[in-house]
Amino acid sequence: MIFEPGSLAQLKHLVAEELKAARPYLVTDLGIRSSGIADRVTDMFPGISVFDGVEPNPRNTTVDRAGEEIRRLKPDLIIGLGGGSVLDAAKAAALLGTNPGKIEDYEGKAKYLTPPLPLVAVPTTCGTGSEVTWVSVITHVGRKFKMSIKGPEMYPAAAVVDPDLLKSLPKDLVASTGLDALTHAVEAFTVKPASPITDLF
């Protein structure tokens, strides 16, 4: 994990030199596109393909569309740029990039046949935590149910956490995601399986 102000500038070196990826693929949303943050990433990787159709609480149908495009384009790495919804969608799409079928086929723990494409997570909000977990939560439209897709190979290969990205977000979003982060911290301290490790957070 790279955690420091301005660290987004290190993304190109991380992807190309450390992770040796030549054909990255960007997963984001329209809000990040309109904020100009996505442009900073696409400028680093001329010609990079972009999927910007992720909605809040990403739907299985959205992930399936992204997965189909990834299979067609055959990138060697996924960049997830956005809040928790984008990062969860990017994890799930990376999984479909190396496995057949639809994302609902992989509900549960380690149901996939092949590890997903490597993912670099670039969170743009302060509440998600998705950049350090092996879980992707996807809303199944037909069942009106949030599926959990997870497995040890679904951890991001790397995370770039740049606090400066918060400066371009609306104040209400910074406030709400900040409270989300606080809630996670309180939860880690109070749950029954709490430990000295979780207490650190």
Automatic annotation (TrEMBL):
Species assigned in the record: marine sediment metagenome
UniProt domain Alcohol dehydrogenase iron-type/glycerol dehydrogenase GldA: residue ranges: 2-163
A Pfam family annotated for this UniProt entry: Fe-ADH
Gene3D superfamilies documented for this protein: 3.40.50.1970, Dehydroquinate synthase-like - alpha domain (1.20.1090.10)
Keywords (A to Z) from UniProt: Oxidoreductase
UniProt-recorded name of the protein: Alcohol dehydrogenase iron-type/glycerol dehydrogenase GldA domain-containing protein
Tagged with keyword Phosphoprotein: no
A molecular function (GO) term: alcohol dehydrogenase (NAD+) activity
